[in-house]
Every structure is written in structure tokens, then in C-alpha cells.
Amino acid sequence: MDSKPSVQNPVITPSATLKESASFPIGNIVSANRLSGSDNYFRTLLNKEFNSITAENDMKMAAMFVGPNTYDFSKGDAIVAYAKANGFRVHGHALIWHASIPNWLKNYSGTDVEFEAQVEGYVKATVAHFAEAKTTTGESVVASWDVVNEHFTNDAEAAVFYNRIGPDYLSKCFTWAREADPDVKLFYNDYSLGSNTEKATKVTNMVTDFKNNAIPIDGIGMQMHVDYQYPDLTTLTSNVTLLKNTGLLIHFSELDMTVNKDKSLNSLTSQRSNAQKERYKNIASLYTNTIPEEQQFGITFWGMRDNDSWLLNFTNNPNEWPLLFDSGYNYKQAFIGFLEGLNN
Ligand code: 9MR
User: How far is the centre of ligand 1, averaged over its atoms, from the C-alpha of 100 (Å)?
Assistant: First the structure.
């Protein structure tokens, strides 16, 4: 059972919700367990502020591809059912990621041709399955997929997809996904694209290569795991511009923000809280003003409450406050900043 909201002083009461303030979808992450759990505060806030959801883990390969030609879509289905009942868009995350390969596939003893057939079967079966759920107006509830996640790393080049299918595993996966659903939006998703211009350029080169070879791709996910000081706004803006110049949809797909990387704070001071507020404001206004409306796929936060964030484990720091709500589900200054950024 999650903790009950505690009273925060002073109480922050925003003048509007995120979803009514943005001209594009605002997302957050969910799990099937949490959507059906006893914590009503989570669902209430999710339904109030957000209109797009992504499975934090339940729609990853390791969760769904349980054996040769065998799939478990039950948790994804529960998420899709919740989305359908409550008017959310679902962004599918992620078909292919080197960090989420089921062990049986990692150690697959068949030939490379058989390996590739397994991956092709999985991509097609998964995309086709999740294309079935429709809204009352006939659109797919699952609007999009991260087809490949985080390819431009040494780890991805060392992983089975690259080794057994070859460097064109990327283009093959996008093509298979398109064959399974002609309408779903297909994304390439990666981290550090706002700071690492070399990596962002690799992505734009990939997009050019795809276009030249008639490989389908609709969007780029910039994960946006940022720090309150890094990357600087100039670099961030120029990398966002570089990627939006591909003409594809742009998704800020996993937004969160460390504020205590050097572990010098034991609590979120008002000074640091204001710095975080300012930075969230800048990011919201950067997205609103730099990306043309027809390319605005949306902004997705990677977590609800500060203490829900993956970053606490990852940075081995319990004193980290990366998100818009504190551990008692109270609105933070960060929320107000983001809201202000949406409006200017
Ligand atoms: O937040 C996710 C965490 O719960 C998982 O343990 C981890 C490994 O599957 O993945 C985290 O989410 C990652 C996302 O899927 C891809 N980009 C980086 C995210 C943070 O690691």
C-alpha cells in the first residue's frame, strides 16, 4: 500500500491541469499492478493531469516474449484496457532493447536464420496484437511504438540482435512493425540526445538512410533524463532543432531531472526547488516553441512521485527529487514551472 498524501507546507494548488494546458499529449508511466492496486491517489492524479501512458516495464520484450513463438500480453492488455476506459493514448515501449532480452532468446541455440524468424514473429505478433484495441472513434488505443531503444551504444552492438541478424536489424524491425500495422507510429528512442550532438547526428543519419531506402519511421524519442544544470539550454535547443529538422514527430519520452547528483543535500531546499522549477519551465517552453505543432507527439514523464523514480536506485541516492510530485503526491514547484512553460 502506498503512503497517504502528507500535508506539505505551503500547499501548492495549480491553476490548471497539464493536459488542458498543453496542445499535445502529456504522459506518464504505469504498471498493470499499480493501475489495479489499492492506491487511489495514483489513479486520481494520473487521470486528472495526464492523457497518455507508457508501460514502465510491462510491454518490454523480456516481459512479453516468454518462449519461442510464445507471448504473454496480459499486463499490456490490462494497461490498454485501462487506457481505453479512461481516455488515454498508449505509447508502446519498447519492442527491441538490448537491456530487455529474455534469457531463452539470449541463449537461443537455433541457427541465425531461426533466431531472426523468432524476432520477426515477435515484432509482428506484438504490434498486430496491440493494434486490435480501438477507441470509440475507431482509432488504435496503442498509437505508437518505440521499435528500437538505445541502439547507439557499445552494449547494443554487443547484443544478439546485432550479432545474429546483422547491422540492418534496425531497418528490419521497423519494416516488420509496419507490415503488422500500417497506421501505428514507429519511433526510434534514445538517451543523451539533448546533450550528445554526435549521437543525435547518428540518429539523423539513420533517419536519412531509412528515408533513402524506403524504411518506415515516424518519430524520434528523446528520453530527456536531464539534470537541473545539464545539458545547457543552448546545446539542448540546438540538438532538439537538429532532430526536428528531420521532419519526424518528436517525443520527449522519459522526462525526469536529477537535482542532487553530488549528494550534498539532505532535503530539497527552496533554492534548489526553484532551480528545478525554472528548468522544467525551460523544457516545457522549449518543446512548445521549438517543435512545430504537427511534429509535437508529446512529453512523457518517467514517474509520478519523486520516490517512485528509477533514479534513486540508479544513482544510489535516496535524496533525489526528480519529478513533479513529492512522496505524498503533493504538487511541487517543478509542476508549476512546467505548467508555466507550457503557457509561454
Ligand atoms: O524505469 C525502468 C526501470 O524500472 C527498469 O528496471 C529498467 C530496466 O528495464 O528500465 C527503466 O526504464 C528505462 C527505459 O525502459 C529505457 N530508458 C532508460 C530507462 C531508465 O533506465
Answer: 9
Tens digit of pLDDT for each residue in 88-99?
999 999 999 999
Predicted TM-score of the model (pTM): 0.97
- Which residue ranges have their beta carbon within 6 Å of ligand 1? 56-57, 99-100, 149, 223, 254, 310
302 CA from centroid of ligand 1 (Å)? 9
pLDDT in tens, 297-344: 999 999 999 999 999 999 999 999 999 999 999 999 999 999 999 997
Mean pLDDT computed over 286-290: 98
Residue ranges covered by each domain of the chain: 18-342
What 242-245 contacts at long range (C-beta under 8 Å, 24+ apart), as own/partner pairs, is: 242/197, 242/200, 242/201, 242/204, 243/193, 243/200, 243/203, 243/204, 244/290, 244/291, 244/292, 244/295, 245/204
The CATH T-level fold of domain 18-342 is: TIM Barrel (3.20.20)
Catalytic residue positions? 150, 254
Residue 210 DSSP one-character state: H
Residue closest by Cα to atom 1 of ligand 1:
310
- Cβ atoms 252, 299 nearer than 8 A: yes
pLDDT value of residue 102: 98
